[in-house]
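Re: that chain you flagged

S.,

Sorry for the slow reply, it's been a week of failed gels. I finally had a moment to sit down with the sequence you sent. For the record, here it is as I used it:
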Amino acid sequence: MHVLCKLCKWYGRHPSSDTPKSTGLLSRHFKRCKVYQDKKNGKPVDLFESFFAQQHKPMTTDRLCESVLRILIVGNLSFGQAENPKLVELLKEAFPQCNTPNRKSVAKRSKKEAGLARTGLIEWCEAIDSKVSLALDGWHSKVGNMEFLGTSS
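Prediction finished late last night. Pasting the C-alpha coordinates below so you have them in one place:
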Protein backbone atom coordinates (compact mmCIF):
# COMPACT_ATOMS: atom_id res chain seq x y z
CA MET A 1 0.00 0.00 0.00
CA HIS A 2 1.16 3.51 -0.80
CA VAL A 3 0.23 7.11 -0.10
CA LEU A 4 0.28 9.97 -2.61
CA CYS A 5 0.80 13.67 -1.92
CA LYS A 6 -1.95 15.49 -3.83
CA LEU A 7 0.20 18.61 -4.10
CA CYS A 8 3.52 17.38 -5.51
CA LYS A 9 2.65 13.80 -6.60
CA TRP A 10 5.27 12.26 -4.26
CA TYR A 11 4.45 8.73 -3.18
CA GLY A 12 5.71 6.50 -0.40
CA ARG A 13 4.79 3.49 1.68
CA HIS A 14 1.54 3.67 3.62
CA PRO A 15 2.11 3.87 7.41
CA SER A 16 0.06 0.73 8.04
CA SER A 17 2.26 -1.31 5.69
CA ASP A 18 5.18 -1.21 8.17
CA THR A 19 5.29 -3.00 11.51
CA PRO A 20 5.72 0.10 13.72
CA LYS A 21 2.93 1.88 11.78
CA SER A 22 4.86 5.14 12.09
CA THR A 23 3.84 8.28 10.22
CA GLY A 24 7.41 9.61 10.30
CA LEU A 25 7.85 9.16 6.56
CA LEU A 26 4.85 11.43 5.93
CA SER A 27 6.08 14.02 8.43
CA ARG A 28 9.50 14.14 6.77
CA HIS A 29 7.90 14.54 3.36
CA PHE A 30 5.71 17.44 4.47
CA LYS A 31 8.76 19.21 5.94
CA ARG A 32 10.45 19.01 2.51
CA CYS A 33 7.38 19.51 0.27
CA LYS A 34 7.68 23.06 -1.11
CA VAL A 35 4.08 23.20 -2.35
CA TYR A 36 2.76 22.08 1.06
CA GLN A 37 4.98 24.55 2.93
CA ASP A 38 3.88 27.40 0.66
CA LYS A 39 0.24 26.51 1.22
CA LYS A 40 0.75 26.16 4.97
CA ASN A 41 2.50 29.54 5.20
CA GLY A 42 -0.30 31.28 3.33
CA LYS A 43 1.56 31.78 0.07
CA PRO A 44 -0.76 31.45 -2.93
CA VAL A 45 -0.28 28.14 -4.70
CA ASP A 46 -0.86 28.18 -8.43
CA LEU A 47 -1.86 24.62 -9.26
CA PHE A 48 -1.81 25.33 -12.99
CA GLU A 49 1.77 26.54 -12.76
CA SER A 50 2.86 23.45 -10.82
CA PHE A 51 1.01 21.20 -13.27
CA PHE A 52 2.55 22.77 -16.35
CA ALA A 53 5.97 22.90 -14.70
CA GLN A 54 5.87 19.09 -14.71
CA GLN A 55 5.10 19.09 -18.45
CA HIS A 56 8.69 19.80 -19.47
CA LYS A 57 8.78 17.19 -22.25
CA PRO A 58 7.34 18.11 -25.65
CA MET A 59 4.22 16.17 -26.58
CA THR A 60 4.77 13.32 -29.00
CA THR A 61 2.32 10.94 -30.65
CA ASP A 62 3.46 8.18 -28.30
CA ARG A 63 3.02 10.33 -25.16
CA LEU A 64 -0.40 11.48 -26.40
CA CYS A 65 -1.50 7.87 -26.87
CA GLU A 66 -0.28 7.05 -23.34
CA SER A 67 -2.19 10.04 -21.92
CA VAL A 68 -5.42 9.03 -23.69
CA LEU A 69 -4.94 5.46 -22.42
CA ARG A 70 -4.60 6.74 -18.84
CA ILE A 71 -7.75 8.85 -19.21
CA LEU A 72 -9.68 5.84 -20.51
CA ILE A 73 -8.44 3.63 -17.69
CA VAL A 74 -9.17 6.15 -14.92
CA GLY A 75 -12.60 6.88 -16.38
CA ASN A 76 -13.34 3.18 -16.93
CA LEU A 77 -14.13 3.96 -20.56
CA SER A 78 -13.95 1.74 -23.62
CA PHE A 79 -11.07 2.09 -26.07
CA GLY A 80 -13.63 3.26 -28.64
CA GLN A 81 -13.89 6.55 -26.72
CA ALA A 82 -10.44 7.42 -28.08
CA GLU A 83 -12.26 8.08 -31.36
CA ASN A 84 -14.88 10.34 -29.76
CA PRO A 85 -15.23 13.22 -32.27
CA LYS A 86 -15.08 15.93 -29.60
CA LEU A 87 -11.98 14.40 -27.98
CA VAL A 88 -10.30 14.05 -31.37
CA GLU A 89 -11.16 17.68 -32.14
CA LEU A 90 -9.69 18.82 -28.82
CA LEU A 91 -6.50 16.78 -29.26
CA LYS A 92 -5.98 18.04 -32.82
CA GLU A 93 -6.38 21.63 -31.64
CA ALA A 94 -4.10 21.17 -28.62
CA PHE A 95 -1.43 19.06 -30.33
CA PRO A 96 -1.58 19.63 -34.11
CA GLN A 97 1.89 18.12 -34.62
CA CYS A 98 0.77 14.74 -33.20
CA ASN A 99 -1.35 12.02 -34.74
CA THR A 100 -4.47 11.47 -32.63
CA PRO A 101 -4.73 7.97 -31.17
CA ASN A 102 -7.52 5.61 -32.18
CA ARG A 103 -8.95 2.56 -30.42
CA LYS A 104 -6.45 0.20 -32.03
CA SER A 105 -3.40 2.29 -31.11
CA VAL A 106 -4.68 2.68 -27.53
CA ALA A 107 -5.26 -1.09 -27.24
CA LYS A 108 -1.77 -1.73 -28.62
CA ARG A 109 -0.30 0.72 -26.09
CA SER A 110 -2.24 -1.02 -23.30
CA LYS A 111 -0.70 -4.38 -24.26
CA LYS A 112 2.75 -2.78 -24.32
CA GLU A 113 2.24 -1.22 -20.86
CA ALA A 114 0.95 -4.56 -19.50
CA GLY A 115 4.07 -6.31 -20.78
CA LEU A 116 6.32 -3.70 -19.17
CA ALA A 117 4.42 -3.98 -15.90
CA ARG A 118 4.68 -7.77 -16.00
CA THR A 119 8.43 -7.60 -16.55
CA GLY A 120 8.83 -5.05 -13.76
CA LEU A 121 6.75 -7.17 -11.37
CA ILE A 122 8.80 -10.27 -12.13
CA GLU A 123 12.06 -8.38 -11.50
CA TRP A 124 10.64 -6.90 -8.30
CA CYS A 125 9.57 -10.34 -7.03
CA GLU A 126 12.95 -11.86 -7.87
CA ALA A 127 14.68 -9.15 -5.80
CA ILE A 128 12.67 -9.99 -2.66
CA ASP A 129 14.52 -12.16 -0.16
CA SER A 130 11.41 -13.15 1.80
CA LYS A 131 8.25 -15.06 0.97
CA VAL A 132 5.43 -13.39 -0.93
CA SER A 133 1.83 -14.56 -0.73
CA LEU A 134 -0.68 -13.52 -3.36
CA ALA A 135 -4.37 -14.29 -3.25
CA LEU A 136 -6.35 -13.80 -6.45
CA ASP A 137 -10.07 -14.10 -6.89
CA GLY A 138 -12.11 -13.52 -10.02
CA TRP A 139 -15.84 -13.59 -10.47
CA HIS A 140 -18.56 -12.68 -12.94
CA SER A 141 -21.71 -10.77 -12.05
CA LYS A 142 -24.96 -12.32 -13.26
CA VAL A 143 -26.59 -8.90 -13.17
CA GLY A 144 -24.99 -6.26 -15.35
CA ASN A 145 -22.64 -8.69 -17.11
CA MET A 146 -19.52 -7.37 -15.32
CA GLU A 147 -16.30 -9.13 -14.40
CA PHE A 148 -14.20 -8.51 -11.28
CA LEU A 149 -10.72 -9.42 -10.14
CA GLY A 150 -9.66 -9.12 -6.52
CA THR A 151 -6.06 -9.27 -5.31
CA SER A 152 -4.49 -9.38 -1.89
CA SER A 153 -0.92 -9.75 -0.75
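What I noticed first: The chain has a mean pLDDT of 82.

Talk soon,
D.
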